[in-house]
Amino acid sequence: MGSGLTLPNVYRYIRLSVKPSISEGLTIRKLLEIAMLQSFGVTRAGTYMDVLWISEEGHEVVIRIADADAETLLAAVVVLDNPVRLSVVKHSGFLPAILGDAASWEKSLVFD
User: Fold this and answer.
1) Alpha helix locations (H) across the chain?
2) How far is CA 24 from CA 30, 77, 92, 97, in A?
3) CA-CA distance, 25 to 51, in Å (whole number)?
4) What is the number of alpha carbons within 13 Å of residue 112 lying toward its C-beta?
5) Mind listing the pLDDT tens digit for each residue in 6-63?
6) Counting Cβ atoms within 10 Å, is residue 73 exposed (0-12), middle (13-18) or buried (19+)?
7) CA nearest 91: which of 10, 12, 28, 11?
8) Selection from 74, 103, 102 nearest residue 89 by Cα
9) pTM
């Protein structure tokens, strides 16, 4: 039996692929700011977001943003006019849902 209590999604977590790779968090943050500026202007360029994770190779990043601003960021990433290409891999209100795929989970569950 459930208690009927649901937790609100305050944040949205977005996993992006980056080509060519970028390993600096500030560079990623600036690129996202440029995307928001190009699409929605100065007000949206100042949207608060965190770069939570960058893969070792710099090909993927995870961003945390307020749930209310997530759709705006997703739209800005799609139309970014920049030599660096950003693509949405996954997004969710639940961080563990975007951190892996079935293959990576299967590898982690193998016991020797």
Assistant:
1) 25-40, 42-45, 67-78, 102-108
2) 10, 18, 23, 24
3) 6
4) 1
5) 777 899 999 999 999 999 999 999 999 999 999 999 989 989 999 999 999 999 999 9
6) buried
7) 12
8) 74
9) 0.82
